[in-house]
Prior knowledge:
The protein is α/β, with parallel strands linked by helices.
Amino acid sequence: MRKTLLAVLVIAALAAAAFAADAPKPEGPYIVTTCGQSPGAVMIGMSAKQAGVKADYNNKLTADDVKGDYKTLIVTSGTSMKGMGAAGTNVDAEIDRCAKAIAAAKKAGMTVIGAHVEGMARRTDSSDAASIEAVMKDADIILVVTDSDSDGFFTKYAETHKKPLIKIKDALAIGTVLK
Length: 179
């Protein structure tokens, strides 16, 4: 119990430190999708639910779906060829769908979080790289698990593009940060 409380406090402190006074802050309710049909959006949805945070996920989210009471759009990056095949899509179509959803979210005044929560396994090829760049370039905040940034890629990206970076130990901690 004590270690869990300490972990939550450390995560909260790191998340707070990641934001400048004028930087957007994650605020629910959340809508979550994936750019690449990998299970990242489901992972975020489950972790949020476990923490008591409202986060709906829709792996086929379109710009028309970005409405209602949502305050933040979370788009996970990294691709699954199996997932895209099952969904009848490809990386170019996924990037186009997500770019339109991100634009609609920004037009609606929502905060956009670009996330990479599945580790280095989702950073292996050109499809992963295309998905990551498409999401992160328009994100207001970058959220990653430690393993996704083991080479410092996201840290450097956030610094170069002057974006707040939230780095967490693993996907289980996502709900705590969103709370």
